[in-house]
Amino acid sequence: MVLQQLDAQLVQTVARPPRDRNVRAEDRLRAEAGRAHAPFETICPLTAPPDVELLRRLEGEGMTSATAWPFSYTLGPDASLAQKRDALLRLGETVIAKLRQP
């Protein structure tokens, strides 16, 4: 139980960087590059397992795309193609499909 609580605190700390600081830095960098007026994408590498709540919150803060942990971390370096396929299907069913629902 204690490990689960510590893990949840770590996920909250890592997955919730100070938004204002990041937005200001992003705005400054875009302005310096002469692109403050142009549309842009924000691709966030996830440091926590993807779930609907996390992805919706990040989308609300401006994320347009995300990357997830490589299979070598989630399934192990010797995962078979079938295991990788099953993991992608589960992600599609448990997260992606729910993101598409209103």
Could you explain how this protein is built, in words?
The chain is mainly alpha-helical. It has 5 helices and 2 strands. It has a two-stranded parallel ribbon with strand order 1-2. The longest helix is centred in the last third of the chain and has 19 residues.
Keywords:
disordered N terminus; two-stranded parallel ribbon
Number of helices: 5
**Main β-sheet, spatial strand arrangement:** 1-2
Q: What's the Cα radius of gyration? A: 17 Å
Query: Structural class from helices and strands?
Result: mainly alpha
Principal-axis shape equals: elongated
How many beta strands in the DSSP annotation? 2
Strand content: 5-15%
| SSE series | HHEHEHH
Largest sheet: 2 strands, parallel
- Rounded mean pLDDT is 79
**Low confidence ranges:** 1-11
Q: State the end-to-end CA separation.
A: 33 Å
**Percent helix:** 55-70%
Please give a quick description of this structure.
The protein is mainly alpha-helical and 102 residues long. The chain is 59% helix and 6% strand. The protein is elongated.
